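Handout, section 4.2: multi-component inputs.
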Amino acid sequence: MLSKIILRQDLPKLVDALANDFLVIAPTYEKKVPTFSEVESSSEVEFDILFNEKLPMLPPKKIFFPAKQTVFKYSLTKGVTDSCDEVSDAANHNKNIVIFGVSPCDVSGVGVLERIFKENYSDDVFLQLRDKTAIISMNCLDHCYENCFCETMSSNDPKSGFDIMLTEISKSKLIAVPNSDKGKKILRDYPEIFTQISEKDSEAYTDALNLKNKNFKTEFLVEGLASHIEDNFESKIWEEFTEKCLFCGSCTFVCPTCYCYTVKEIVSVDLKDGERQREWDSCYFPEFALVAGDHNFREKKEQRFRYRYLHKFVDLPRRYNLEGCVGCGRCVTYCPANIDVRDVLKKIRGVM
Amino acid sequence: MRNAAIKQNVGVCTPNNAKIIKITELTHNTKLFEIQLEDEHSNKHFDYSPGQFVLITIFGVGEIPIGLTSSPAKRGTFELGIRKVGNVTNKIHQMKVGDIVGIRGPFGKGFPVEENKHKDLLYVCGGTGYFPIRSAFKDALDRRDDYGKIMFLYGDRCPTDVLFPDENDGYMSKDDILFHQSVDRDDDKCWDGNVGVVTTLFPNIAKEVDPENTVVFVAGPAIMYKYVIIELEKLGIKNENIYLSLERKMKCGVGKCCHCGIGDKFACLDGPVFSLDQIRGLLEAL
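Output:
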């Protein structure tokens, strides 16, 4: 069988083995905040985060689409000198990357971004990094915390976008199910860590998946949401939440599927050379739709508040046939104004 | 619809280096820049539809979307008409022939010129809206036999703001084009033509328009659209035959950065040219 067993106590061994061959990114605590970081050994990894299922503050999008990155370099008089191929993070990493311990909702989130960055015009800066990355996902058998609504957004059972899925089948054992050539190779390459699966393990796996299926509940109806939002475009509900919102953009930065960006020119002190940086932007910021002549296409706060919902729950489903939200609940957790995306949607649907 | 023909071998995020080869001063705040890509292969294959746009980079300053202003039949170079309105356009206006800029594109959906062969064409533009319309208009003149009547209504703020006055004079003296222009104000009494907003020109063509067979291309400030649409509907032209070019902020031009979102569409991918039919179903469009 291609699926293998790994003992829970061997997970550090796996991280150490992978660290010899890959650049490993895994959950750690940075200043007490759960964070995906580059690790050199298993001693830096907080396995606790995996098993107590705390989501790192920033989703793995930051690996393929960093908060700030150089897109290309130029001379002010001669133009582009180094294109994105030469300056991107992918070009600077000799090793392939493994992200260890990604939750299923975050796998779905990466999938959303990958689709967007690939379609229409493919974005090499993003895709080069994505292509050299393998994702080892850690399955969830139950809602990880009260803000999670992944079942509602159908994101806790991704069919692709991960290379290996680890599922706990007992207190001491996990099953490692490969989902790609990359994943199959990893399972083959470390035979001292991944062992053969028994019939009993196989049954335990089915039991675990049944348990998962039983534990997850939907909170509200998503079917028909897009047209419902359009039909309630002029609703007073938007204003109600606009009054609470601080327009800080926190929800957009921690969101696994938010990808708005702006670009900035960084010029050297001698005014000879420069580089273009792209950095995360937020549709909640007042200058987001501002053009020359001081015309702002979304001047009012409620227009900006509403647009995020319009984009996530109307545009993305229609354009790409996928949900623009994975229900990870980060925006709920990190909102300083206590706005809950579920409340907004429920009110729009008239069920709250 | 033609697609971006530049081989994006540098990645869609990196501009192609290009040279300014000619600058024509049009008015006190507008110039026409003729531009050529440095890479010969890319330059040879640079092809576009009227109404499409490029993103022009002024290295060290920034990047902005600008509608292509020349006819696609003009090969080897292309023109961009630019008014001085912000940081980047101010800097462009200081540049000289031979200076290097960056070009990405062409991007977006332009005016449906191929789809409407043999129809009558009506162009309506105001101010810098003339620039993208000029591309479509010149394209039609380059293939005059492909179209029926050609009508052109152009309005600008005042006589000194009028773009391409010499070209316009030429069009007015032609028999196979109905060209009408107007200025909103003529404070110095130096204009011998029509004074008033662009909608005051509609009576000149009312009798010429066959509403069943006319396709309209419109570009100008947002405020102009509302009034132009009223006039076009009075003429009995269907929404599906009216095409408007919408302005939005853009950072990527390729549907990634989200700045140009309009309802459930992006101006860069789905537009910038939309039919009025589409716009009617688009929240926050006009």
